[in-house]
Specification:
The structure is a homodimer of 241-residue chains. By secondary structure, chain A is of the alpha+beta class. Chain A has five helices and ten strands; from the N terminus they run βαββαβββαβββααβ. In chain A, strands 1, 2, 3, 4, 5, 6, 7, 8, 9 and 10 form a ten-stranded mixed sheet that branches. The longest helix of chain A has 13 residues, at 22-34. In chain A, 37% of the residues are buried.
Chain lengths: 241, 241
């Protein structure tokens, strides 16, 4: 299933002892719909407050309901801040973590003197004027295959910190700055640390060229802060052909 | 004051016996801030659920606080879904209804097969594919000085139904269709009735040319339905030079 959600009112994807999560809501309503206990898994375990337009959830079921009809039936039951965009049958052993895929994330910043209520839930408000040209220049140092240890939470539990970013771009449209990251995989908090670092470039605290040094340092301390969750949207997950 | 708000959780601008309104929240916090009873008036009394990026509120005060500082001080007190963008002093007898001004409204439609949680509060979701070219063609018949009786709520209490629309355009950007209306004034529900009528054009229930007949009829029954409030945003109010 391709799952879109407004993360504002959820404690992220993964089931937590305190607070409601996307995974839990999907499990509850899928189990009721299909009349069997369903346990979904996700392609990306997004953090508390992070949004999605295209996360992937997959699960085993014995249902005879046509796979493409499940999204429509499930949407009748889901709260309005979670919508399944589509559903399809996959092979028994299919798993998003075992296939090559392209993930796209966007981090959005409202860069203006005053907050704007209409996008407060989906952008990070940043008051000081940001130099988008410098940010985009810095972003280009991140493109390609690198060890992204400096851009991963110290809580990351992975065998390799090497990822391949196909593109990182920074574009301004009026008061909204969008940092778009496209790659074969992302480490824990990676896009938010990229955003936090590019914001430092944008307000001239560090030079664009410094990003190369930060990569080389392989040290989380070298990069900027983790930007707030509300600016982050998982745009899409696509299996490579 | 230029006032932006997310209208989702308010019963519109004007004070109501049941439910909280923008006017009421501004009165309460301005009165506390300035230490005197403040009663604001608005340029546009937006309906329940309608949003604003630039409504105008004006009021009398004896305060010595610099006018341009009031917005900053007030924003410290306001809930996050109302933000005063700026404030300035005007003449004692200034009133937005007595000056020539240009108002811009946008009506936004999500036109896709599935709802998208991230814009559910700020767009009207319309499932069937809309023909934007036909809608834009129809919109052009509304441009200019006309009697807009057909496009006004029967509850309108005005002396004249004649208004001058400087531009009406319909543009698609991905799944979002924006109807933008610019003019010297708007009648009660006018933009929402324009949107409801253009949607009928967009799904080929009526021909674009029919809009001319609807205008000539001077009868609310001739036009389409009033489109839902959540798609409407008051973009700006500007005094003409």
């Amino acid at each position: 299933m391709v799952v879109a959600y407004d993360g504002t009112n959820y404690c992220g994807w993964q089931i937590q002892p305190n607070g409601i999560t996307i995974e839990e809501v999907l499990n509850t309503h899928l189990s009721q719909l299909l009349g069997e206990e369903i346990v979904v898994k996700g392609a990306s375990r997004t953090d508390s407050g992070v949004h999605s337009m295209g996360n992937i959830a997959f699960f085993d079921t014995d249902t005879r309901m046509a796979a493409d009809k499940i999204s429509f039936a499930l949407n009748q039951r889901l709260p309005e801040d979670i919508v399944v965009q589509s559903s399809e049958q996959v092979d028994d052993d299919w798993n998003p973590h075992n296939v090559n895929s392209t993930k796209v994330y966007e981090y959005r910043i409202r860069n203006s003197k005053m907050r704007m209520p209409l996008d407060r839930l989906y952008t990070y408000f940043y008051h000081y004027d940001l130099d988008v040209e410098a940010m985009d220049k810095a972003a280009k140092y991140l493109v390609g295959e690198h060890d992204f240890t400096s851009f991963a939470s110290v809580k990351s539990q992975v065998n390799s910190f090497v990822r391949n970013l196909y593109d990182v771009s920074v574009v301004r449209n009026g008061d909204i700055i969008t940092i778009r990251c496209e790659g074969n995989g992302f480490l824990y908090n990676m896009v938010r640390i990229i955003a936090g670092t590019l914001i430092q470039v944008g307000c001239h605290k560090i030079e664009p060229e410094k990003v190369k040094e930060i990569l080389d340092a392989r040290d989380r301390e070298a990069a900027g802060p983790t930007a707030p969750a509300e600016g982050l949207v998982m745009i899409s997950w696509t299996e490579d052909c």
